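The protein record now logged underneath.
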Amino acid sequence: MNKAASTPVVAVIGATGYTGRFVVEELVRRHVAPVAIARNAEALSEDFPSPQVTTRQAAVDDTAALARGIRDAQAVINCAGPFANTAHPVAAAAVQARIPYVDVCAEQAPANATLDFFDEPARQADVTVIPGMGFSGGLGDLLTKAALRDWDNADSVDIMIGLDSWHPTPGTRHTMGKVGNLVVTDGKLVPAPESARKQWSFEKPFGEQTMVEVPFSEIVLISRHVTANEIHNYVTQVAVDDVSDPATPAPEAVDERGRSAQRFIIEAVVTRDGEQRTATASGQDAYYISAEMACEATQRLLQRQDIPAGAHAPGELFEPADFLAPLNLDSFSIT
């Protein structure tokens, strides 16, 4: 399945967005031919003047145009939010074309729906579908798997997301109210307690932080393959305040890769019978890491024959240390 091509071609939906542009640039660095697809033809021509990038105009709600846009691709990466509007039509187009689908969805409902709806069609088409393959979703899922090690279940899983700032993209602003509010309590997906907070001590330079429970797609991804009584995730209060403030500007590039100055740290903390295990990753610009993760997953789907068909959470498919090693993280550790 997932035949590798000598010069792979990958379609990028939502290519003119902040994460989408990172994805296109990362594919070029990986010697993959990107097809940049977006609704706005003028934005496409302005953002991607290089002959290394093919550009095609298509709206997600135009089934025929979308099919034409991905017609010669070997895989699709969907970066177009809100994913409540885009995940189903883009995944359907990919499965119809019998090519893998990857997205960077942080929203719980579309991630859950993609796993439920497309598992059997993807198996029948002999392709792989992976929702939530980004910072808010897949990274916490992979770190949880790393922290568990030989455990097949846990009493609790806490994803602690430390952001020193959060300058939201327009896409983030559109989706924040649609992310979802489900957590796992007593082994079941239920609405999170409103405004749950806790104190957490990260390694320097983050240190002691007030954390706010803000459930992202990692909750539903982790719950697909990890049996736990409790699964929660928290974000630093300073970052929540940033993204809640309409005056907070969009991210600005500060280095040659186009990354913003934002620093992050994520800790997946799992407990069982009084024992605690932790996996930690840190780096720069959460959106950039989402792009790297989506490209890494897609390239593996194109190169490997052992990845099963169907719809899967990232942690069901990849070994964390091996997957995260090629990414531009500052650190990754398991304790």
User: Anything to note?
Assistant: The chain has a mean pLDDT of 96.
